[in-house]
Write a structure and sequence with these properties.
The protein has 296 residues and is of the alpha/beta class. It is built from ten helices and ten strands. The strands form two sheets. The chain has an eight-stranded mixed beta sheet with strand order 4-3-5-10-6-9-7-8. α2 crosses α3.
Length: 296
């Protein structure tokens, strides 16, 4: 018996609604009404003969069938996009992205050769100095979650933080009490950002008191702060994603075996329509795969 396949439009609505677990958020991303989303889901469930969603305590949830179906649908759309991109050719496609300078220098650039090896026809324009001019880019990687309509904001990863310094400087830091005697290096790229993880927040979370944490040199970028630590200027609070290669290479060491429940998040931010642009979805999918390879 020939099985009638559901429409691509209904499947797209299901994918978006299942990803957000919200018909309202799905309607916003798809630029349709809530009623249109609900109608498409009902039609899809009727054609499949199964329930894909359920409500519990006024919260939308996937059924067991829906949870099984979702990754298959997402993979099908991913294959369709990539096949279309290959068909039309991507020799002239440019993806414009904005990435914070330290993340670009210490995390993204060392990985770009793998991206170009896999996707030689996608060209990137990368900017590291930007503020809120999001419309200039296909997507942004930032530690500030954007609060803008018609934008998708998803966490790419979060990374732990710990003190780092040069191997030569490490002899001065044998315990937390030594932090009162050494130069602390500070990075404050955004004045007035209350939740930026600085020395004060980290020491409090680690349960370390009586440290004069405002001493030392302050830099306007994380990259300069880490460079100063490598040159033996003092002790910096390093993000693991940024300092791990330097630690492995021996340019930095972690002198204290101390951890704190403070993490630095990075977000993917893009207009809802940007994901349909050739090359953008491929790059985002690659970024998530690279995150999956690492330890944060």
């Amino acid at each position: 018996m020939k099985i009638r396949q559901p429409s691509l439009n209904a499947l797209k609505v299901f994918e978006v609604a299942a990803r957000h677990l919200s018909f309202t958020a799905a309607a916003r991303e798809l630029h349709v009404t809530n009623a249109a989303v609900s109608h498409q889901i009902k039609q899809l469930e009727a054609s499949l003969g199964v329930s894909l969603f359920k409500r519990r305590n006024n919260q939308l949830e996937l059924t067991v069938v829906g949870e099984t179906y979702l990754p298959k649908v997402q993979e099908a759309f991913r294959t369709l996009r990539e096949s279309t991109e290959q068909l039309i050719g991507l020799s002239s496609v440019t993806v414009r992205i904005a990435v914070r300078q330290a993340l670009c220098d210490r995390w993204l650039i060392p990985r770009l050769s793998r991206f170009y090896e896999a996707h030689p026809r996608i060209h990137l324009e990368i900017k590291t100095e930007f503020e809120h001019d999001y419309l200039l880019y296909d997507f942004i990687v930032d530690y500030r979650p954007a609060n803008a309509p018609d934008y998708v904001v998803q966490q790419l990863f979060s990374t732990s933080l710990y003190p780092v310094c040069s191997p030569g400087y490490a002899s001065r830091v044998n315990g937390t009490e030594d932090l009162n005697q050494v130069a602390l290096l500070h990075d404050r790229p955004l004045q007035g950002m209350p939740d930026y993880p600085d020395w004060q927040r980290w020491l409090q979370a680690a349960g370390v008191g009586n440290i004069a944490n405002s001493r030392g040199t302050t830099f306007s970028s994380s990259l300069m702060c880490l460079r100063a630590a490598e040159e033996g200027i003092g002790v910096a609070l390093g993000q693991h994603a940024l300092v791990a290669p330097a630690v492995e290479a021996g340019r930095l060491v972690a002198p204290l075996k101390l951890s704190a429940p403070v993490r630095m998040p990075y977000y993917l931010i893009h207009p809802t329509a940007a994901i349909e642009k050739p090359g953008v979805h491929t790059l985002i999918h690659w970024l998530r795969a690279e995150v999956g390879r690492g330890d944060f």
